[in-house]
Amino acid sequence: MGAYIVRRLLQAIPTVFGVALLTFLLFNAFGPDPVRTALGNHATTEAMASLRHQWGLDKPLALQFLDFLRQIATFDYGRSFVTGDDLGTQLKDGALVSLSVTLPPFVFGGIVNIAIALFIARHRDGVVDKAARALFIAAMSVSALVWVLALQYLLAFKLDWFPINGYEGGWSAVKYLGLPWLIQLLLLMGPDIRLYRALFLADMNADWVRTARAKGAGEGRVLLRHVLPNAWIPIITQNVTTIPFLILGSFLMERFFSIPGIGNLTIDALSRGDLPILKAVTVLGALALVAFNLVNDLLYAVADPRVRLQ
Amino acid sequence: MSAAPELLAVAPAPRSAAREALAALWARPHIRACLVVVALYGLVATCGWLGVLPDAEAVVGGAQDPPSGHLATLLGTDLLGRSVLWRVLAGARTAVTIGLATTALAVPFGTALGLAAGYFGGWVDAVVNWVYSVVVSVPDILLITAISYAMGKGLTAMCVAIAATSWVGIMRLVRGEVLKHKGSDYVLAARSVGAGSGRVMFSEILPNVVHVTIVTTTLVLLAAVKGEVILTWLGLGVQDGASWGLLIAGAAQDLTNDIWGPLAGTVTAMFLLIYSLSAIGDALRDVLDPRVG
Fold first, then answer.
1. C-beta separation of B146 from B200 below 8 A
2. Per-residue pLDDT for B2 more than 70?
3. Mean pLDDT along residues A150-169
């Protein structure tokens, strides 16, 4: 296992280097000039040169890239161009806010959706299954943005159950997070239940299921004691690889409800040309994906004794 | 001896896989309806490109007139007195344009790289896989953000960005299929009669692996049409003109004034296209992918 982890980490080096190169090229080499964005069209040459020097953008591109690689290696992404704030704190705060938006519906929705999928699998091809399938396909054919808009209109504007948007730190955040949580729960139902149903049904005709039936196990017991334990592995895979996206947050929810998470931070940085934030978020997002893919593979080996890592 | 010409005469001409797949799709009434719907969107888009759609910028009434019996004001008018229905139709043209442009970028690129990586192996495979691992490591929304920054926000950047996140899946699938076919008898036979790499890849292997590309194409189309709305709303997509994303973004304000026309029209138009494309995609997978029962 140890050797496997080391080898996987070494394999990740060219990938992370590539991510750094791609990020640097897109933002520093091809993108618009952030100095011009910050100072506007009427800035003097001196003012622009001085700001360019302050931000380290007057160095040759190769040196700037080396600086960026050093930042990635030391996890020190410097300061925001616009606010001058330390990025470490800003990103940590943003990630916590993003997680507070995405984690509760992810956990709660996961449990509820597995239960519903088990119920639907128990009554497969029945009325409930057919109705649910049609309903989910129809619901998923409507843009997520429309669901957000319609639910905000109905639950916040018309019924006044939730504030329309906004955010406060600490425990009062719950008041503002209720509606985004509810919306995400509903949006997750279609894709999740369809996936879990397919996972459960895939094993329905397997040998061990037939054996269990032959021994007289009822349909409920077959699902809970024989099908579900085997389905845990793909369920883990699905959910572990989702974790980086939870930290990254939902751009749509944060933007819609003015919640100051990573998504909102990124979109704001984009319009202000705040390169350090954009580059840091991109590289950290990629690092998280690479790391959780590794964790996923390791969990896979732990959960399934047939999997041998070498 | 005399039977041979007769046999030749009665044997039906071999049908191409594509025609067979289309016939299998057409045999399902539900999918037939979906194909007709998609064809109608194609027609609307073509009319838009030819400039024969009613002018979406023309003023046809007062500000935010309620829906009425006339075709132009069936869904009412917007703040500037423009027909909401014409804007929804122009939005359909934008959506189809984005879908086709994204597909035209992602599918050939992913297919060509997948063919090359699978066929040549060695350093070509190593380089393609490195690029693949880099692109899939960046979360889609961040790659899209970065490309929007580099190219400037707008329709072109959005198409390139969605394509950049879509080609990887196609590459991976095609590469896997090519690896399966590389050692087949028919490939060896083609090589033995002197066919070059290009000929073997494009004339021999490609027709046998293209089915995975076709199924994925419907997914790319869907991603582009759905992506436009979200990205435009986030400010990364279409900046001006008529698009479903801009219509829905405007509808948020309208709702508080009890104006439903733009939202209802856009949602219906989007629903029909996305539902039909997903149904066709599912059916195509059933028909073309032998692994699915």
1. no
2. no
3. 82
CA distance B172 to B26: 30
Look at residue A232 in the predicted model and tell me its pLDDT.
84
Q: Of A37-46, A223-232, B106-115, where does mean pLDDT reach its minimum?
A: A37-46
Rounded to an integer, what is the distance from CA A96 to the centroid of its chain? 13
Largest CA distance in chain B: 84
Interface touch B275/A31, C-beta < 8 Å: no
Q: In whole angstroms, what is the distance from residue A74 CA to residue A297 CA?
A: 26
The C-alpha of A3 sits at a distance from chain B's nearest C-alpha, in angstroms, of 21
Contact of B144 with chain A, judged by CB distance below 8 Å, is answered with: no
- Collapse the DSSP code of A79 into the 3-class scheme (helix H, G, I; strand E, B; otherwise coil) and give the result: strand
The CA dihedral of A259, A261, A266, A271, to the nearest 10 degrees, is 30
Q: Rounded to whole angstroms, what are the CA distances from A88 to A74, A282, B62, B216?
A: 11, 14, 53, 39
Please give, rounded to a whole number of angstroms, the shortest distance from the CA of B149 to a CA of chain A: 6
Cα three-residue angle A267-A269-A273, rounded to 5 degrees: 125
| Euclidean distance between CA atoms A267 and A273, whole angstroms | 10
Is B226 an interface residue toward A (CB < 8 Å)? Answer: yes
The reply to whether residue B233 touches residue A252, judged by beta carbons under 8 angstroms, is yes
**Assessment of whether the complete model's pTM goes beyond 0.80:** yes
- Give the model confidence (pLDDT) of B47-99 as tens digits: 989 988 888 787 777 777 777 777 777 777 877 778 888 889 999 999 999 99
The Cα B252–Cα B259 span in angstroms is: 10
**How far does the CA of residue B249 sit from the closest CA of chain A (Å)?**
9
How would you class A3 by CB atoms within 10 Å of its CB: exposed for 0-12, middle for 13-18, buried for 19 or more?
exposed
Say which amino acid occupies A272.
Answer: R
For residue B248, what is the nearest residue in chain A, using CA coordinates?
A146
What would the two tokens of residue A275 be?
Answer: 């390169």
- Beta carbons of B213 and B285 less than 8 angstroms apart: no
Residues in A closer than 8 angstroms to B256, CB to CB, are 153, 157
Task: Give start and end residues of each alpha helix (H) in B121-154.
Answer: 122-137, 140-151
- Pick from B152, B256, B267: which is nearest to A32 by CB? B152
Tell me the residues of chain A between 94 and 113 that have a Cβ less than 8 Å away from chain B. none
Distance in Å, alpha carbon of A284 to nearest chain B alpha carbon: 9
- How far apart CA B12 and CA A171 sit, in angstroms, is 74
Q: Please give the Cα distance from A24 to A68 (Å, whole number).
A: 8
**Is A142 in Cβ contact with B149 (below 8 Å)?**
no
> Any chain B CB within 8 A of the CB of A32?
yes
Backbone angles phi, psi at B82, to 5 degrees: -90, 150
Nearest chain B residue (CA) to A292:
B137
